[in-house]
Design goal:
mainly alpha, two-stranded antiparallel ribbon, 21 helices, 75% helix, globular
């Protein structure tokens, strides 16, 4: 980080915060503070919805996911356009007609207060956990850059977001997200073209795709029904559709974004805009990660991309063993570079292995990459032996390592601003939605006396502060899972299926009444948590995306069964 990088980074973030505070000062009523005064055009709605989902985790973890596992993760988003159409046809007209502040108000009209409280409580639990993780993600970046303590950075970043979220509510979040998305798109395109320019002179973009394909990184579509594969076309279309329906249709952090639209048409156009642009955007971010992988076929890499892991080894009895593994990795680099060139120049020529066997260039390259992964796994064990508290899972550090070690001065600051902007936009949306839900669904509904608009605006600000503090505390206790983007989606999948099942019962199955849906939701939530635990401990195999489908279907099925038995009991009592 040079002076110019700090200037770009600080100036970008300061502009976003100051602009948000300035544009939204003086919001005195609930309509303005929670729904942004219903002033947003469709493109603002679309960008706001997209920015809410595209947190720092997206720009940290997605390239790392592609670096390790290739492009298959894009299948996760295949259900998103389908979900957008369904929400536009069924969800938005109901929300607009009822003029709700939160999605959960509708559930009280359809069922009762208890069901509304259950759904909004599940949202608060899942989104409260996720808010902590979206603060934790950018702290990883600055920790790598500055060497500062993660908890200190969690507090600083969380406090920055809380400032402008409290100042202007939904409008502050919405108006700043346009600027944040502009910074994000600019930064990612610059990074992509720089990676291509850093490849050897005889390797162009088309050649890079050939190398990635030969390394098994370009397998986009998986039509198998193997539950050991988390990401397939079927899990993306079925599980992904249910997850996206839950997230965009019932999660207040997203519902609040499009409820700020000027009209129902603006809301619907905004979501369609998001549905059209989101999948290509995620494809592009994954492609950036694959190009980083190709770049490192020709350039040296550390044994572990987490700088803290390397530091933990130094001066310990394990340093010699770690250095030997690094030497093994360095020796593989010339082989990788040679094979990568052969993929382009002589793809049909077979390679004679040391054991005398004959394999294709592609198979030889994949074999080299397997050896590299084995060396990295040994290094993780050595790091854990040296210091059990150091994070050895380095997927989320791959892209930040590339940025810090390869980009020119000024652009490092821009890319860091991209990731921190994404973190601020997503976290602000979450805190805003958490506070609005707490105020509308719990605080205001349970007050015995009437209060004026200013009182509820003040209460929402206090709840924003409270949720901000809680999110910071969660961030301070967070650890990397497989990687952060998967962790956020896993948290959502555990709770969203149940919430969606309640809403789908409310929208489409008039036969199910309040008591039946409430009991079925409680049973389903317990069952989904049990299924996740069984999968986690490998008792059964059920990838987390399927939890959304199972949860939603189970709420509806149990609701119908319970309603039927309740109806039979009522008839018997009547007779």
């Amino acid at each position: 980080m040079q002076d110019i990088d700090w200037i770009v980074l600080v100036a970008t973030l300061a502009f976003i915060v100051i602009y948000g505070v300035y544009k939204t000062r003086g919001r005195k009523n609930v309509q303005d503070y929670i729904r942004g005064g219903n002033e947003s055009k469709w493109w603002t709605v679309g960008l706001s919805v997209m920015a809410t989902q595209a947190s720092a985790i997206t720009f940290l973890s997605t390239p790392g996911q592609a670096f390790n596992d290739g492009m298959g993760f894009v299948q996760f988003y295949f259900g998103l356009p389908i979900a957008m159409v369904i929400i536009c046809l069924f969800f938005i007209p109901i929300y607009h007609r009822l003029n709700v502040y939160t999605a959960y108000e509708y559930l009280e009209n359809r069922f009762d207060q208890r069901t509304r409280s259950l759904a909004s409580g599940l949202f608060l639990l899942s989104r409260g956990l996720a808010a902590g993780i979206t603060i934790f993600a950018p702290s990883i970046i600055l920790s790598a850059v500055l060497g500062w303590d993660l908890n200190t950075l969690n507090i600083i970043i969380g406090s920055l977001v809380v400032i402008y979220t409290i100042s202007g509510g939904t409008k502050a979040v919405t108006v700043t997200q346009k600027q944040q998305m502009a910074v994000i798109f600019l930064g990612m395109f610059v990074a992509f073209f720089l990676i291509i320019s850093y490849l050897p002179q005889d390797i162009n973009f088309a050649n890079a795709l050939e190398i990635a394909g030969a390394s098994d990184k370009m397998n986009i579509l998986d039509f198998s029904f193997d539950f050991d594969n988390r990401y397939t076309v079927w899990s993306g279309i079925l599980g992904g559709t249910f997850l996206m329906l839950s997230y965009f249709g019932t999660d207040q952090s997203q519902v609040q974004r499009y409820l700020s639209g000027k009209s129902m048409r603006e809301m619907q156009l905004g979501l369609i805009f998001n549905g059209i642009l989101k999948v290509p955007m995620q494809f592009f971010i994954l492609l950036v990660g694959v190009m980083v992988f190709v770049f490192y076929q020709f350039n040296p890499t550390p044994l572990n991309f987490n700088p803290a892991a390397t530091q933990a080894i130094q001066g310990t009895p394990f340093e010699k063993e770690y250095n030997l593994l690094q030497n093994e990795l360095n020796e593989l680099r010339s082989d990788k570079s040679e094979l990568s060139h052969k993929v382009v120049s002589a793809p049909d020529v077979n390679i004679i292995q040391p054991d005398g066997s004959e394999v294709s260039v592609s198979e030889a390259l994949q074999d080299i990459n397997k050896k590299e992964n084995a060396i990295r796994e040994k290094a993780r064990i050595v790091i854990s032996q040296a210091d059990k508290n150091v994070e050895t899972n380095d997927k989320d550090y791959v892209f930040i390592h590339f940025i810090l070690n390869n980009l020119p001065r000024g652009l490092i600051g821009l890319l860091l601003a991209v990731i921190l902007s994404a973190a601020m936009s997503s976290t602000a949306s979450e805190l805003n939605a958490l506070a609005a839900t707490t105020t509308v669904d719990f605080y205001r509904r349970n007050l015995d006396e009437e209060k004026d608009e200013a009182h509820f605006v003040g209460a929402t600000k206090w709840f924003t502060l409270s949720w901000g503090i809680l999110a910071i505390l969660i961030a301070c206790t967070a650890n990397l899972f497989d990687n952060l983007i998967q962790l956020v989606n896993i948290i959502g999948s555990i709770f969203y299926g149940t919430i969606l099942g309640i809403f789908m019962s409310a929208f489409f199955i008039k036969k199910i009444k309040a008591k039946a849906v409430f009991i079925s939701a409680l049973i389903t939530q317990a069952a989904v948590i049990l299924l996740f635990c069984l999968d986690y401990y490998e008792v059964i195999r059920l990838p987390y995306l399927w939890l959304n489908f199972v949860g939603c279907g189970l709420v509806i099925l149990l609701g119908l069964i319970l309603q039927g038995s309740m109806g039979t009991e009522e008839k018997q009592l009547t007779n």
